Amino acid sequence: MGFFEKLKNGMNKTKTSFDEKINNVFSSFRKVDEDFLDELEEILIMSDIGMDTSVKIINNLRNRLKKEKIQDESDVKQALREEMQKILDITDNSLHLNTKPSVILVVGVNGVGKTTSIGKIANRLVKDGKKVVIAAADTFRAAAVEQLEIWANRSGADIVKRAEGVDPASVVYDAMKVTREKNADVLIVDTAGRLHNKKYLMDELSKIQKVINKEMEEADKEVLLVIDGTTGQNAISQVKAFKEETDITGLVLTKLDGTAKGGVVIGIVEENQIPVKFIGIGEQIDDMEIFNSEDFVKAII
Fold first, then answer.
1. Are 66 and 284 in contact (CB under 8 A)?
2. Residues 152 and 175 sit within 8 Å (Cβ to Cβ)
3. 3-class secondary structure, 175
4. In terms of C-beta density within 10 A (0-12 exposed, 13-18 middle, 19 or more buried), how is residue 68 classed?
5. What's the pTM?
6. Pairing of strands 276-280, 250-254
């Protein structure tokens, strides 16, 4: 099964929710007028896209429908897809890992799938011919290190780990040393799951980033925030909180299969101007792909 088929199947609940509601609007109105657009706007808001983003999409759609005199249902849907895609394409979603070594710092709240995402991203990089080192800097839970080690072995990456309770920044420091010794291409840093409203955990995250910036000043750096797609609008507040503490360069979306809240992705990108870089659909090590806005929008509408 190709990734688009996996994406389409995984996003089925979101797609069903969107399509059913949109089709109901078309069946209720004989023409595309202001009442029709108001109904469509309400659907977008109820689909977790968010108030401001939904208003923007409908305003752009309204102007386009008038300018291009669009009335046909399929053409209206296509225009809607394109307006959503414009938002998702507003920033560059490619990984910038051009130096050797480069660093990927992975952050997020508890339970969003950080460890699994790291394993899948490491697997992609290794398949691309990169030598990868993973720093197990979540030293609060022994189980976290064990799980990460399993994923590292499956992906073919090296792992640097230390005893439970060790200062996470010191683990990162050791991992940077190993990365240089092994002449590795990419260092991926795992961090403890943290609630975005716990200041001491956020301060620790800032400390880790300062160590990386000091010791690898010239290296390309990506800071990826992992977001659980099932959390809907709460994901937007998480992004805003992490933005205040770290220089987030991209988002990793997980658990979008099995939720009808996939529309939140569009609101997150619009409100924060941060691109989605990876999307995970499924549990297998290959079920992680570079985000494609066109495929994503097609999969939900």
1. no
2. no
3. helix
4. exposed
5. 0.88
6. parallel
Give pLDDT, residue 3. 63
Question: What is the model's pLDDT at position 151?
Answer: 93
Q: Are 148 and 163 in contact (CB under 8 A)?
A: no
pLDDT at 258: 58
In the chain, which stretches have pLDDT less than 50? none
Question: Per DSSP, what are the bridge partners of residue 278?
Answer: 252, 290
Contact status, residue 261 vs residue 48, Cβ threshold 8 Å:
yes
Percent of the chain that is helix, strand, coil (3-state, to 5): 55, 15, 30
For the segment 142-198, what is each residue's pLDDT rounded down to a tens digit? Answer: 788 899 999 999 999 999 999 888 899 999 999 999 999 999 999 999 998 766 556
For 143, 150, 208, 289, the CA distances from 163, given in Å and listed in that order, are 12, 17, 17, 33
- Tokens for 291? 């985000």
**DSSP state at residue 255:** -
User: Nearest-CA neighbor of 223 among 197, 205, 199, 238?
Assistant: 205
Q: Which secondary-structure segment (H or E) carries 254?
A: strand 250-254
50 sits in the region (left: phi over 0; alpha: psi -120 to 50; else beta) called left
Question: pLDDT tens digits, residue range 31-52?
Answer: 888 998 999 999 888 878 889 9
Sheet holding 158-160, edge to edge: 158-160, 132-137, 186-191, 102-107, 221-228, 250-254, 276-280, 288-290
Q: What H or E segment, with its residue span, contains residue 193?
A: none
Tell me, rounded to whole angstroms, the distance of Cα 184 from its chain centroid.
Answer: 25
